[in-house]
Amino acid sequence: MKFVTCIRGTIIAFKTYSLINFDNMKTKNLILLVTFICAAFLVQAQRKTYEISIKRPKKEIPIQPNMYGVFFEDINFGADGGLYAELIKNRSFDFTNSPTMGWMTYGHVSVETTGAPFERNPNYLRLTNSGLLTGTGAINEGFRGIGVKEGEKYQLSFFARTVDDEAKKLRIELISYGTEIMAHADMEVTSGEWTKYRVELSPDWTDSHARLRIDLRSLGSIDLEHVSLFPEKTFKGRENGMRQDLAQALADLNPGIFRFPGGCIIEGNNLETRYQCTKSVGPVENRPVNENRWNYEFQHRFTPDYFQSYGLGFYEYFLLCEDLGADALPVVNCGIACQYATEEVCEDLEPYIQDALDLIEFANGSATSTWGKLRAEMGHPEPFNMKMIGIGNEQWGEDFPKHLEQFMEAIYAKYPDMLVIGSSGPSADGERFDYLWGEMKRLDVDLVDEHYYKDPEWFLNSADRYDSYDRKGPKVFAGEYACHDHPEKKNSFYSALCEAAFMTGLERNADVVHLATYAPLFAHVDAWQWKPDMIWFDNLRSVKSANYYVQQLYAQHKGTNALEVTWNKENLTGQEALYASSVIDEGKNQLIIKIANTSKEKRAVNFDFGKLKVDKKIGRQITLKGDLKVENTLDNPDLIVPTEKPVSISGTNLKAELEAESFHVFILE
Ligand code: AHR
Questions:
Q1: Ligand 1 neighbours (beta carbon < 6 A)
Q2: In sequence order, what are the residues at sequence separation of 6 or more whose Cβ sits closer than 8 angstroms to the Cβ of residue 451?
Q3: Of 274, 148, 289, nearest in space to 211 by CA
Q4: How far is residue 130's CA from residue 132's CA, in Å, rounded to a whole number?
Q5: Distance between CA atoms of 489 and 472, rounded to whole angstroms?
Q6: What's the pTM?
Q7: Are 138 and 127 in contact (CB under 8 A)?
Q8: Which atom of ligand 1 is nearest to the CA of 293?
Q9: Partners of 625 in the beta sheet?
Q10: Sign of the C-alpha dihedral, residues 81, 271, 357, 286?
Q11: For 146-193, how does the pLDDT look when each residue is reduced to its tens digit (9 = 90+)?
């Protein structure tokens, strides 16, 4: 018998007892004891059990197999310095605000352009040793340091030429944050023609803040370009690949869809700096460096060294989708730059539309088509089977639907089966939202992207958001959402719990909501601009947030058809602080129930699935629970993680205790 019950029983017992007069002490004590036990049982029996009924809805609600996925944006050092495994920052000396940013140079070092080997990256570095005692060389600081592990192998490569045709000696070193040398190699640049040189380095110890030094050991000059350092181990062993732990964290999410590369970065702070997908393919050395939209967006999180190398370009994105088993959802600029930053709208939309068409041809065209040929040359003759495309991001106003209409005409004319995703703007409601939804319906776009970064209350109050959506209208892509638990906007357990509660509404309305992706995905602990984020990392470690586990639980147990879950004949959307949804998985023959209890009290529930006419014998309960304010950190990554235990089923009922402030997934088979 629990403590609270006992206390309440005792109070009732004493109240009853004080009303009666007794002479005999023994009788008094006996009656007191009996009264106490009865009262305690009474209270116990009075604890409410929520009778929850689960049945098939009148009309089948199929769940899209790719419903839950990820939205990737190069924000918070998510690509360069994050998922993209390259360890050298500003490897081609083309950061527009300072060509040697990220490099500490000494001796005679200059930035040159004459005879540059890669047309789209015009700068290279000239090292001249004229015998100074200080020597000549350059040290790269990586992305807030270079993370290397003891005994692992790292592949260094660079392009170089001698200036006077005489061979030059180079010393390459990985150095610890102090000055100790962790690994070194001696090399010789032998040719006056640009040549690619490679060497393997293996450090003697681990350091998350190492640096790379290139020291010229001969008199005279050499030219250096595209200095690159990759761990030998990348995700799936891909060349020019992804950081293993971060990509694995994505794979563990079981994502159905992968939206990329943004977000605001596809818009750019102006049209000049928008993300240009067709420039992000082809030989990696010749992909132009682009200013990152988040370079100076937030003055309090100023990151002047934030650029996009395009090393993680559209080829790599498609390949990653394939490796993850996720459908690719590229998003392209719609001829409008970020409307928070500028009013710039393109004068001629044609090149923007052509970009989208070229992208589709790059992904799906035959190996003899112009862009399909490039894909084949890059190593992927088979098409990537791209099925959908997002046009624009957080647009608003009249230009957007006008542009979208022209994109749709051109895309459907060439690719009638392509799904086109429009936008409802940056907020979840209001004038702009209503206007754009009207326009999206008029244009009959396939899906409408909705974004909401809102507080916990909004998430809890919006669990029924889609219950009343037009069933005939375009489908919804909840493309960016996250619960912002103010003031710190931590990845607190509370934010995750609110998202879990809200997502029961996505699941229940899977006939309307076809796709959903949390945002943003990644953040470097030393270089972020925006939080909360799903996965945090430093140069060697990563941590999955409580929000990650919510996404994972939904994606891993998404089922095939949504069911009807009612309490008192109503959808459970927050009554008594309970939120529930349920699905059946026809393939796995499972009945899955998701339920969040956001109250400060324990809840007893009884799920009755008799009307489903399914025979379920064994079950397990996965629970996510913790202190509301707690978040997982790199040092304490397992504060909030799912735990699992078996549950017993009695006939066609499942009784369960839901702890206060907890989220549960029941899997019955
Ligand atoms: O996810 C961060 C940003 O939020 C995205 O770039 C943008 O689409 C939204 O405003």
A1: 73, 75, 262-264, 393-394, 426, 451, 480, 519-520, 530
A2: 394, 424, 425, 426, 427, 428, 479, 480, 481, 519
A3: 148
A4: 6
A5: 36
A6: 0.93
A7: yes
A8: 6
A9: 662
A10: negative
A11: 999 999 999 999 999 999 989 999 999 999 977 899 999 999 999 999
The residue whose CA is least distant from atom 8 of ligand 1 is 263
Identify the residue whose C-alpha is closest to ligand 1 atom 1: 520
Closest approach atom of ligand 1 to CA 394? 8
Helices (H), 415-509: 431-443, 456-461, 493-508
Find all residues with CB under 8 Å of 195, minimum gap 6, and list them. 159, 160, 161, 189
At position 236, the amino acid (one-letter code) is K
Ligand 1, atom 9: nearest CA belongs to which residue? Answer: 263
List of long-range contacts for 571-574, beta carbons under 8 Å, 24+ apart? 571/464, 571/467, 571/508, 572/52, 572/504, 573/463, 573/464, 573/467, 573/504, 573/505, 574/460, 574/461, 574/463, 574/464, 574/501, 574/598
Q: Who contacts 653 (Cβ-Cβ below 8 Å, separation ≥6)?
A: 606, 607, 608, 609, 610
- The neighbour count for residue 232, using CB atoms within 10 Å, is 12
Query: Of 533 and 35, which is predicted with more confidence?
Result: 533
Distance from the Cα of residue 663 to its chain's centroid: 21
Strand partners, 215: 137, 171
* 231-278 per-position pLDDT tens digit: 999 999 999 999 999 999 999 999 999 999 999 999 999 999 999 999
> Which atom of ligand 1 lies nearest, measured to the CA of 71?
1
Q: Give the integer Cα–Cα distance in Å for 226 and 157.
A: 8
Q: Which of 269, 273, 453, 517 to mutate to test the pocket of ligand 1 (most atoms within 8 A of CB)?
A: 453
What residue's CA is closest to ligand 1, atom 2? 520
User: Phi and psi for 638 in degrees, rounded to 5?
Assistant: -115, 30
Give bridge partners of residue 481 from the DSSP assignment.
452, 518
CB 153 within 8 A of CB 202: yes
CA of 119 to the centre of ligand 1 (A): 32
Alpha-carbon distance of 531 to 143, in angstroms, equals 19
Listing DSSP states for 21-42 in one string gives --S-HHHHHHHHHHHHHHHHHH
Do the beta carbons of residue 553 and residue 665 sit within 8 Å? yes
pLDDT of residue 178: 74
Structure tokens at 521: 């995905």
Strand-strand pairing, 207-216 and 136-140: antiparallel
Do residues 424 and 469 touch, judged by C-beta distance below 8 A?
A: no
The edge-to-edge listing of strands for the beta sheet with 61-62 is 61-62, 561-562, 578-585, 590-597, 662-668, 618-625, 643-648
Beta pairing partners, 516 = 68, 478
Nearest to 352 by CA among 268, 289, 286: 268
Q: Kindly report, residue by residue over 461-499, the tens digit of the pLDDT.
A: 999 999 999 999 899 999 999 999 999 999 999 999 999
